[in-house]
Structure formats: structure tokens, C-alpha cells
Amino acid sequence: MYSRDEVKAITDKVIDMAKADAVEVEFNGGERSATRFANSNITANMVQFDRTVAITVYLGNKSGTVTVRDFDDAALKQGVADALKRASEAREASEAPVLTGPQEYEPVDAALPSGVNYGPAERARAVRQSLDICAKKGVLGSGYIPKVYQTTCTANSKGLFAYYQYAEASFILTARTKDGGGSGWAGITGVKDTGLIDPVQLTETAADKAIKSQKARALEPGRYTVILEPRPAARFLSLMTGLFNARTVEGPVGNYFSGKERGTTRIGEKVFGEQFTLKSDIGNPILRQSPIGTDGLPARDVPWVEKGVLRNLYYDRQWAIREKKEPTPSSTSNSLVLEGSNMTIAEMIKSTRRGLLVTFFWYIRPVDQPSLLNTGMTRDGLFLIENGEIAGPVQNFRWNMSPIVGFNNITAVGTPVPIHTGESYDGPGTALEQPVRIEDFYMTSVSPAV
To answer: Cβ distance 37 to 76 under 8 Å?
Structure first.
């Protein structure tokens, strides 16, 4: 899309043009495309090509930023002039900027040929395979296949040149019975190697869930052992990744882990269940995410939690200076891996006496921020487990639960797969997440969701 040499020529030109105390240049450019299908028909093929250069200049403690989309000399010169004008008219900040100089990054090949070339024809072929399975199973398939091919770079007048290019794709499918009484979801997201996308297997999984979820029986609300498949497990995990930020834990809101006042971070103490291990794994061969950390510093492997023990908090540069700490080289938004095992969901079910298999969470909203209590609903197939077997579908529930409590009650983990932690499927935030079994998960009331 944009080679290292092409991007460097642009950023160098901007830096040379700007006669200022310091200059930063942010380059972003590439392709975002997708295929959507609904009711077993392709409904849209979309593609967007965009590129921007954000120019920030510093005049002492003043700064000004302008974004341009044309890269010819005239447009860049005008952008620099506009940024200088804004800086001259800006209010002074309390401190001058601290720019990062040249850095060495771990090599990460994130633009694999399979991802780069995953175009409309390849996506249409995947839809065709999926819809053939839907027709065979007698269900209607609706899905989304996004593809992103992007180049990013941060450069500055101190010599920083942080370049990263990646291509990734996802396949997400909801299958519904024709009468609307059954629904099932399956997907894989944010993969650099599109060979990991198996439309046939994913469609069979979603279709089987839809068929088996029909005629759900009533079940009383209460506390249940739950097995969260990777997607709901990733959404549940995302509700608490912010608490590893030192600003959050040590700031005026107090301590999430203990409820005590600022300064009691409990690093080195056990705050989660024994089977909970969370880390940033830079250069992970499946995720292949950016080796560039915050402030342009090289990202590094960071153990956040080891067997339930809190090992690290994330310190950005400003908070690290304030607290007299070293900045953390990675954050929990990059290359996040929740360590798993070789245990399959079927094996997890077999070892569960009574519980619920949860295949999807939706409409998650905060209830009490200090305790991270959240509420949400199940959908797309909720199944009762009895004596190590699926006993049948049950009606959906609304739940109330804090991930701090939930991840304290883990009793089994499974095989990790790439899946987005957030609501979207085509932006940053892919993690390696596995199914987890959690005890005493509180299902508060019945939900009318399918």
C-alpha cells in the first residue's frame, strides 16, 4: 500500500518544511473494505481508500495541528503554514513537549499476502460457501466480512520513524431459522493469515446453534456455572482491561482491586483466580500486532497477571514522571493474550455437572463504575448443561456481573482463538481469547432476545 521509503519521503519533507522548535508527523493511509450479506444474499460490497498526514508543530510551549489529505508540495506547505499559524495563536502549555528519538522495533510481518489479497472475489467465495451450508441446513445466513490494509507511521524532528503496515480480515455470521425462533453466532476476527478463516466450519457452527436453540425452555434466574465461548469471554474481559492503567488504579477514584485509597495497588498480590494469566505478547505469530508502543517507544512483552497475581500496571510517560516510575513499554490494548490450554469446549462441557453454555453477549452497559459491575444479555443460543451433556436450549437472561469477580471464579480455560474484545469487528483490539468456565455467574432476569 505505502512502502517504508514512500512514507519516509513524505514525513521527511514535512519536517524539513516546518521551521519550528519541534515537529511531529502522523501518517495513516490504506484500504478499508467489506462484504455484507443478509437473508442469504450479498447486500453490499464496500471499499474506501483514504490517507491523511497530521502535522503538529511546536513553538516553545505552544502547538498547532493540521491534517491534510493531498501530498503534493503545495498542499504540504499550506498544511505546515496553517499549523504554524495555529501554534502562534495557541495558549501556552505548562510544559514543552518531550519527543522520542530514534528507536529499534521488533520486526513484525503483519501484511501477509493472504490478507493483502483478500479482495471481493475471495470474500464472495467465502459467502458462497457459507450460503450453501445455510441452504443445506435450512437456515438464513447474515454476515460481515471486513478487510483492512493500512499503513501507519509516527515521525518527528528528533529522528523517530515508527512505521507499521498490516492487513487483516474477519468473518462473522449469524444464522437464523426461517421462522425466527432460533439463532446462532460464529466468527473469527482480526486475523492476518486469512487461511485461518474457515467459512464452512463457522457456518456449520452457527447453523447448528440456530437449529438447536429452538423451543427454549424456561429456567429460573439465579447464580450459575457458565461456560463463556471466546466471543462473550472477550467482551467480558474488555470490561476490565482499563483497570491495569496506573492512572485508573492510583488516581483519585481509588483502587479497583481492594476498594482502598490511592497508592494501594497490590502488585505482587493475588487478585484473580489461579487460572487467570494475562499478558501482552509482542510479535505473537497469530496476532502480529504493532511493535510500536505509546509515545513511539518499542512495545515489549508485559505480564499483567500471572496465575491470578497482579504483576504490572501500565504507566504512560506523563503519569510515570508524576509517580517517579518507568513508562510501561506496552498497554493492554496491544497484543493481548489470555493464556489457555488445549481443552476444547466439548471437554469443558463434559467436566461440568450443571451450568449454562453462553455463546454471545450483547447490549453490555455499566451499572456501578467503582466495582466495574456491568449488565448485559445473552443471545444467539443459550444451552443448559447437565451431567456433562447439553440438555437443551433455555430462554435468554439478563446478567449483572463484575469481571473482577468473574475472573476470580474461573475453574477452567480452553483453547485460545483470535477475537475482538470490543463491539466492532474491523478496528484494533483483537486478542487471543479462550473459552472460560466461571462459577456463580449471576443471571438476574429473563430476556426476550432470540
So the answer is: no
- How far is residue 158's CA from residue 306's CA, in Å, rounded to a whole number? 37
Per the DSSP assignment, residues forming a β-bridge with 228 are 358, 436
Residue with cell 464472495: 124
Alpha helical stretches, state H, 213-277: 230-238, 246-250
Sign of the torsion formed by the C-alpha atoms of 369, 372, 378 and 380? positive
Quote the CA–CA distance of 53 and 75 in Å, as a whole number. 11
Grid cell locating 441: 455467574
User: Do the Cβ atoms of 364 and 378 come closer than 8 Å?
Assistant: no
* Beta partners for residue 347, in sequence order: none
Rounded CA-CA distance 395/383 in Å is: 8
Residue at grid coordinates 493492554: 332
Do the beta carbons of residue 431 and residue 234 sit within 8 Å? yes
Report in angstroms the alpha-carbon separations of 83 from 10, 29, 33: 16, 20, 32
pLDDT tens across 74-117, in order? 999 999 999 999 999 999 988 888 899 999 999 999 999 999 99
User: Which pLDDT score, from 0 to 100, does residue 39 have?
Assistant: 87
Q: Please name which of 249, 268, 271, 269 lies closest in space to residue 260, comparing C-alpha atoms.
A: 249
CB contact burial 282-315 (16+ within 10 A = b; e otherwise): bbbebbbbbbbbbbbbbbeebebbbebbbbbbbb
**Closest Cα partner for 294 from 102, 191, 154?**
154
